Structure formats: structure tokens, C-alpha cells
From TrEMBL:
Residue stretches making up the 3-hydroxyacyl-CoA dehydrogenase C-terminal domain: 187-255
Protein name: L-carnitine dehydrogenase
Main function: Catalyzes the NAD(+)-dependent oxidation of L-carnitine to 3-dehydrocarnitine.
Recorded metabolic or biological pathway in which this protein acts: Lipid metabolism; butanoate metabolism; Amine and polyamine metabolism; carnitine metabolism
Family of the protein in this entry: Belongs to the 3-hydroxyacyl-CoA dehydrogenase family. L-carnitine dehydrogenase subfamily.
Top-level taxon of origin: Bacteria
Xref: HAMAP family: L_carnitine_dehydrog
Coiled-coil residue spans: none
EC identifiers of the protein: 1.1.1.108
Positions contributing to NAD(+) binding: 13-18
Keyword annotations of the record: Cytoplasm, NAD, Oxidoreductase
Subcellular location(s) of the protein: Cytoplasm
Amino acid sequence: MEPADVRRVACVGAGVIGGGWVAHFLAKGYEVTAWDPAPDAEARLRRLVDAAWPALTELGLAPGASVDNLTVADTLETAVRDAEFVQESAPEDLDIKRDLLARIDAATPAGVVVSSSTSGYGMTEMQTECATPQRLVVGHPFNPPYLIPLVEVVGGERTRPWAVRWAAEFFEVAGKSVITMDREVPGFIANRLQEAIWREALHMVANGEATVEQIDASITEGPGLRWPLLGPCLTFHLAGGEGGMAHMLDHFGPSLKSPWTRLEAPELTEELRDRMVRGCEDAAGGRSIAELVAERDRAVIAVMRAIEEVRRKS
Ligand SMILES: NC(=O)C1=CN([C@@H]2O[C@H](COP(=O)(O)OP(=O)(O)OC[C@H]3O[C@@H](n4cnc5c(N)ncnc54)[C@H](O)[C@@H]3O)[C@@H](O)[C@H]2O)C=CC1
Ligand SMILES: C[N+](C)(C)CC(=O)CC(=O)[O-]
């Protein structure tokens, strides 16, 4: 089947990310079947989709898009048996992923591409128990998948190149922005970058060098404002003035060796965990998760529109 002909998508695991994928595919006009073993999964999923729908409606729904195109299946096998594409979003646990991907592989029609939302495992280590591993890929999304365009697509050692190409094309058709990687890299691209920031943030909180509030403000009031348009490389190209990146590297290159960064992640002690949790509660200032999600969605849409406008005019 050609990626553009897909009409039926199955989402396995329907938490934060699986639910976000469901909302995305519904908004793009697909028929979606979801399965999640938790007893409260359907209610949680429908709440998540309902909460996302206003933002999706504002962005523009595809013809025929409706929350009524969602079916919640009783079993994994029922969810995937008629699927033309499967997205797995179960917990980040290698044993669960291995077992689940093997079950999905056994129950999904031959030739249908199966993609995992994993944020860190390589497909090589997850596809070990699959009978037809050639059609399994990683399709790593960003939260919330119904708003953030990027998906990082990469296969494992036993994935065939056609499956990677097919998945990349399908995600593009489904309205995502795709980076296809030709080799497995721990953390893919974006998480490798994000984890470097996250590791340093935890070190600073653990050592009392900065608070949660200061760390967040250092990004939202600082570099974060430049990144939506330029990314870290072009941002630093401008840091070199008229000399661009060449001057920037000649000028600041030697300071790369300064002890700004710490190579090892800190120990996640109870104390550090509590400090992070309390810091985030303080920063949330009484706003519930649902309120923060709605605020984030409005802000992401506003930023996306502003960037579109700048690109259109330049
Ligand atoms: N939360 C995030 O920001 C992101 C997460 N991811 C990845 O997405 C995947 C899911 O993560 P979240 O949605 O955050 O987790 P979550 O905890 O919100 O959702 C996981 C869901 O999987 C269900 N589940 C438990 N056992 C299962 C099984 N055996 N089969 C199918 N479903 C099962 C749970 O009931 C739950 O609804 C993970 O691989 C994670 O690394 C990827 C990008 C971002
Ligand atoms: C927290 N996380 C590592 C699971 C985040 C991601 O994988 C991507 C994102 O949404 O930032």
C-alpha cells in the first residue's frame, strides 16, 4: 500500500504520547483504533483527545476528521488486525517493548509498517523477538504529537530500507516533519541534545547552583526565544557577527574545553527528586496539569504561526 492510501491507523498504548498520536491521526482524518491494557485507559484517552480538539480545530481539521472515528479495542489483536499502519507507545521498558512488538508483529497484516515511539531504545534491541522484524521502525515523536511536528525515523539492523522510507513518507503525508536517520544513535538527534541540557540542569539543582525556576527562565527568556527559528547552529553562526560561524569557532572554540559541562549524569537521589518535584510545583504556581497543557498548546500554536509569518515575509 502507498503511504498516501492509508486510512486506518492503530495506536497501541494510549497514555501521554499514544493519546497524543490518536488526537493527531484523528485530526488528520484517519480512522483510529486504540488499545491500552489499563482499566481506565479509554476514559483517559477520550479526556486527552477532547482537551486537544479545540487546538486542533483552530489549526484546521482534515475533511471528515472527527473524534467519532476513534474505536477503543478490547484486545491488542482486534486493534491491529485491520490496521494499515501501527504506532506503539507503551512504557519505556525494554522487556515490555520486546514482548509487545513481537505480539503486534504477529497480529498485524504482513507488509504493514509498525513504528515505536520509544524515546531512547534502538530498534535493533527491541525487534529481537519479532518474526518479521524487517517492517519495524522507530518513529520518535515529541510531546504533544498532535502539535509538535518532528518525528525522528530510524530502523534497526534487521529493518529493511523500504520500511524506513515508507514510514518517513507516511509521516510526511500525515502532516509531520520528518528527520530520517541512516544509523542508530542513542537518543536519536533531539533527545541527545535535550538530555545534555537536562543532565546539566539536574547537576545545577543537585549542587544548589540554580533553582528550577532559574533554569526554566534561562531558556524561556534566553536561548529558547531564538531556537524556534534558527536552531543552535545558525544561532551561533550569528554569534560570530559578520564573520559568522568561522569567527565564532576561532573566537570561542578554545573555551569549548572550559569545564562548563559535566560528562556524567548526577545520581538521582530522593533529595534531588524532591527538589525537582517541589521546584516544578512552585513554578506551576497552582496551575493544574490540564491548565498547563492548554496554555502550552496555545503558546505553541502562536509560536508556529509567528514563524510561518516570518518565513512567508522573508
Ligand atoms: N512523555 C514524553 O514526553 C514522550 C514519550 N515518548 C515515548 O512514548 C512511549 C510512551 O510514553 P508515555 O506516553 O509518556 O507513557 P505513559 O505512561 O503516559 O503511557 C504509557 C501507556 O502504556 C500503557 N501500557 C502499559 N503496559 C502496556 C502494554 N504492555 N502494552 C500497551 N500499553 C501498555 C499504559 O496503560 C499507559 O496508558 C515511551 O516509549 C516513551 O519513551 C516519546 C516522546 C515523548
Ligand atoms: C522526556 N522524554 C525524554 C521522553 C522526552 C522525549 O522523548 C521527547 C520530547 O517530547 O521532548
